[in-house]
Structure formats: C-alpha cells, structure tokens
Amino acid sequence: MSASFGNHVSIVVFGASGDLAKKKTFPALFGLFREGQLPSSVKIIGYARSEIDDADFKKRISAHFKGGDENKIQEFLKLTSYISGGYDSEESFTKLKESIESYEAENGVEKSERLFYLALPPSTFTTVASTLKKVVYDKNGTTRLIVEKPFGHDLESSRTLQKDLAPLFTEEELYRIDHYLGKEMVKNLLVLRFGNEMFNGVWNKDHIKSIQVSFKEAFGTQGRGGYFDSIGIVRDVMQNHLLQVLTLLTMDRPVSFDPEAVRDEKVKILKAFGELETDDILLGQYGKSEDGKEPGYLDDETVKSDSKCVTYAALGIQIHNERWEGVPIVLRAGKALDESKVEIRIQFKPVARGMFKEIQRNELVIRIQPDEAVYLKINSKIPGISTETSMTDLDLTYSTRYSKDFWIPEAYEALIRDCYLGNHSNFVRDDELDISWALFTPLLNYIESDKAPAPEIYPYGSKGPKGLRDFLKKHGYVFADEGTYQWPLTNPTVKGKI
Ligand SMILES: NC(=O)C1=CN([C@@H]2O[C@H](COP(=O)(O)OP(=O)(O)OC[C@H]3O[C@@H](n4cnc5c(N)ncnc54)[C@H](OP(=O)(O)O)[C@@H]3O)[C@@H](O)[C@H]2O)C=CC1
Ligand SMILES: O=C1O[C@H](COP(=O)(O)O)[C@@H](O)[C@H](O)[C@H]1O
C-alpha cells in the first residue's frame, strides 16, 4: 500500500463542466470535507474546455451537495477554483501547473502530492494523460491519476488504452474506478465471507446450489439512449460492476487485506471462469409501459429506430475450479424494470428429506442497494402449538440495526478517500481488466452481430423478459412456495408439515 497523502494536496478534476463531476465527483469531495476526511488546506481545481466563471462553477457543483450547513459549503468552495482550457493545450496546462505550484510554494510543500481525476469520456484519456505528463508531472513528487470506467469498449480498445497509458503513468499511480467497489455492502463481502465460519465453511459446491447477482433499475435511459445505444447493458454494468461483485463473492481467501493480495485472488478466480456461452443468455429490450405512460427504448429520439440494443440481459456463468465446479451462476441486469435493487442471492442445497415431508432451501440474500441488508432465510417451527415449519429469516438490515447518525460514505466518497490514502484494494488492476474484457468480448461480439436473436421486448416497469423465471429455474434456482415466505411479519397459516 502506498503512503497516505498529507495536508497539502492539489486535486484537479478534468471534465469539471460535465455530468459526473457535477453529480458525483465534487459532491464526493464535499462529503469527505464535511466529514473531516479531507484536510481544509487542500486545493481543488476544476478544469474543462467550457468557459465558466468561478461563481457559476461553484453554483453548478454546490447544487448537488448533500448535508453540511451553509458555512461548511462556503468553506469548501473557498478551496475550489476553475480553469478553462483544452485537453491538449500546453499553454493551459502550464496555467494549471503554475496554479498548483503557487499553492505548494505558499504552503512550503517540499514534495508535491497531486491527485488528478479524469471525469472525462475515455476518448480523451490519452490526450489528457500525455499533456499532464509533459507539462504538469513532478517526478520528485507523488502523483495519482483516477480514471473512470469504461476502460475501453472491448478487449482490443482496452489493450490500446492500457498500452497508451502505461508509458505515462505507472500502475501504482493509476486508480481505475469501478464505483461498485466503493459501495458499503460490496466492501463488506470479504468480511462477511471470511470473517464468519458459518459462511466460510459452506461457501462451495458441496453446499451452494446456485448464485445470482442481480441489478435492477426502475428507469430507462432517460434521454441518454444515444450514449447507451453503442454500449448496451452488458458493457454498461455487467462486464464491470457485476463481475467485480462476483469475483469478490467467489474468490479464495486472500492472505491479508493488502491490496495486491486481494487483487491477486480476484485475478486467479477470473482465470477459472468458463467461456460465456452464447446459448446461455436471455436478452431483452424495454418497450412502452403497459399503461402506455412510460416510453419504450426506441421512443428515445437519440436512438436508431431499429436498434437491437440490449437493455436487459441474464447470463449463465460457470467457474471451473474445485470450489465452484458445477454451481450455476447467473448475472442479470436490466433497465426500466419494476424496481431499483441490486442484490446477491445464494441458494443452498436442500437438506435430506427424511423427517420432513416438505422443507425449503436456505437462501442468503445480500442486498447492496437500496437499504443495505443481509438476511438468511431459514426454516423454523411455527411458534406455539403448531408443529409446522415455516420459512423465516435472520435479518441484518442496516437501517434498523445501525444508528442513522452513523456516516456510511457514498461509493465515490469511499473511493476518493481510498485513493487519497494510497489504497488500491478497491480499484481495478490492469490484469483484472484484461481478463474481464477477454471474457466478455466474444459474447459482446455475438450479441452485436446478426447471428444474435432479437431481444425480447418487455414492458417498461415489468420484471423483464417472460423467459426469466424459466432461465433461473434452468440455473438451479428454486422459487419459494407461493405465500410461504412473508416479510416483515409472518402469518402462521403457512404451508409445510413436519
Ligand atoms: N455521468 C455518470 O453518472 C457516470 C459517468 N461515468 C463515466 O465518467 C466519465 C465522464 O462522464 P460524464 O461526466 O457523464 O461525461 P460528459 O459527457 O458530461 O463529459 C464530461 C466533460 O468532458 C468534456 N467532453 C465531453 N466530450 C468530449 C470530447 N469528445 N472531447 C473532449 N472533451 C469532451 C466536456 O467538458 P468540456 O467540453 O467543458 O471540456 C464535458 O463536460 C465517462 O467516462 C463516463 O462513462 C461513469 C459512471 C457514471
Ligand atoms: O456505471 C453505471 O452505473 C449506474 C448505476 O450505478 P448505481 O450506483 O446508481 O447503482 C447505471 O445507471 C449507469 O447506466 C452505468 O453507466
């Protein structure tokens, strides 16, 4: 792990006029400042081509700040400034460098510490990185460069990007953000798995029947279809966010929490993933809602009228190692569904029937969002004189278990803090990235070819394509008997006799 930055750090956000900077990067920097996680002596510079005056810039970013009183906001804004310039303009980068150097000189900084955040489209990464290296880079100081996903469009473009960035910034200087790695419950996975023998001991093919990682969004592309059309749901959230969650869920125990120990294990498990089979997928695209109020994907004017872009996908995955051979794994993700939820479902094998006529399977649910929760569905005798079993749960729902005053950082807050501290654990390493693209590129090529079946149209606001239930059954998931699991209060007229 690299050393933590100190009190006099220059933080530059490139693409400061954009959506991500406004909605995530600056609010995250403010959140860290509000919580005392960022020294009040740092300097924060927004940089982009747009001509924006300082006051407008501050108004623009602060509109998205959460928490903190007006004094805190003003204190933070005093640390920020904006520079307008091109991404290949040595002249403007010299202005940036001078601004950083005068701050460092004023504060008697001997060894510079600089964090550059590229909140930019990937097409600009190499240009910005090379101008930075040429004009602003201080070889006697410490530099950290955060780059946003997508890191490429496929294996080839990802390798090109890697090849272009590698001579400019070392792997130690690079921090590739996948913001799912900053989510609280995702960060908890290693503790849940390896810190509890009751999970650790059964985390394998002998006890687990099936695994699902599911991502649902209750809204469509909301006018961003033009951007999404060349991306699709698989590239948007599966090749990165869901795959990252799955690696943490299935990898072996790292020897320590050291970033390289964790990332070595992630790479090892990724190498054991089987090829993604093109006949083991379910593809969908959302149409209008049943009441006609919500638009279909093709109603977005920025999308081609005959687009086959996939807004829903379910994929079967196999891992070929001793721990997981034969366990069906499903990744599924969709936009414009009935709810917004991201969760992991691990279903255990059934117990021996013997004494029970009917008994259901244990299921561990790890809800990443909203309202983080871990609950384990178990069989229990109905309380009282009944001898029947019912399905109930052991429940750790964060909102009822942890005080509301407890600060849980947002994903971007957590990751920027990690970068500040020099901790790479929750960032994507180059070899991890390469394997993930190698895994997904053949499938993406197939989905985007004429050979792929047209995606099934599902109504906006529905559960997704009709075939989903059968797809999940085919992958070993057994649905609970209707009405037998009730939450939060259980009505004792449940089915199932001892
Ligand atoms: N928005 C989001 O919620 C998320 C975004 N991301 C990723 O973060 C990065 C930034 O996203 P976002 O802020 O939405 O992107 P934007 O399209 O808003 O771009 C950010 C800024 O980059 C500059 N820019 C845009 N296009 C170009 C171009 N072709 N050439 C040079 N400069 C350009 C613009 O600034 P100017 O013209 O002033 O220089 C713009 O304000 C992307 O890689 C995106 O995939 C990842 C997760 C979520
Ligand atoms: O990277 C992306 O993630 C968001 C979902 O992030 P979340 O933190 O809100 O779950 C997704 O909406 C977007 O399409 C994708 O690019």
Describe the structure in your own words.
- The protein is α/β, with parallel strands linked by helices.
- It is 33% helix and 20% strand.
- The protein has 15 helices and 15 strands.
- The strands form two sheets. A nine-stranded mixed β-sheet has the order 14-13-12-11-7-10-9-8-15, sandwiched between helices. A six-stranded parallel β-sheet has the order 3-2-1-4-5-6, with helices on both faces.
- Strand 13 and strand 14 form a beta hairpin.
- The mean pLDDT is 94.
- The ligand O=C1O[C@H](COP(=O)(O)O)[C@@H](O)[C@H](O)[C@H]1O binds next to helix 10.
Describe the secondary-structure layout:
Layout: E1 10-14, H1 19-34, E2 43-48, H2 54-62, H3 70-78, E3 80-84, H4 90-106, E4 113-118, H5 125-136, E5 142-148, H6 155-165, E6 174-177, H7 184-194, H8 197-200, E7 208-216, H9 225-228, H10 232-250, H11 259-271, E8 281-287, E9 312-317, E10 329-334, E11 341-348, E12 363-369, E13 373-381, E14 389-397, H12 398-401, H13 411-421, H14 430-447, E15 456-459, H15 468-474
Parallel strand pairs: 1-2, 1-4, 2-3, 4-5, 5-6, 7-10, 8-15
Antiparallel strand pairs: 7-11, 8-9, 9-10, 11-12, 12-13, 13-14
Helix pairs in contact: 1-13, 4-5, 6-14, 10-11, 10-14, 11-14
Bound molecules: NADPH dihydro-nicotinamide-adenine-dinucleotide phosphate and the ligand O=C1O[C@H](COP(=O)(O)O)[C@@H](O)[C@H](O)[C@H]1O.
Enzyme class: oxidoreductase
Organism: Suhomyces tanzawaensis NRRL Y-17324
Pfam families: G6PD_C, G6PD_N
